[in-house]
Amino acid sequence: MTDKIQQLNELIEITRDGQRFYQHAHDEVKDVRLQALFRDMSQNKTELIRALSVKVAANQQKPADGGTFIGKLRQVYADTKANLVSDTEATYVAQLEEAEDRILHAFEDALESAEPGVQALLAAEMPKVRASHDRMRNLKQSMQ
């Protein structure tokens, strides 16, 4: 597997962590507005994973189909913390914002070191990644 494909697969895994976390948080919160937001954010991650997977498959490689251990730990931590505090929604929003930070930083790092073909794909996807990050950051700040 080339460095390019490995890099794309790492981004897929990190993004899938976010997608799964949003799906999980959707099921855990009671606020219907947050449920709708989390559903939308999960769908955004699905579309991003699809775009990255197409690039991997175009290079005759298998796209990653899992997530990361760190992503699973973040979800378990959020569940534990949510059970201990009174504001479950704010807990999930804060943890999802941290997941967005992780995704954004991974994409920024990859964009700096990517080959031209991959760099074009990442540059095209960065506005969506930043928009998702900013959306959760703003929500977190409004809930504090």
TrEMBL record:
Location of the DUF2383 domain: 4-112
Signal peptide: none
InterPro entries assigned to the protein according to its UniProt record, in alphabetical order: CHP02284, DUF2383, Ferritin-like
NCBIfam families: PA2169 family four-helix-bundle protein (TIGR02284)
Full protein name: PA2169 family four-helix-bundle protein
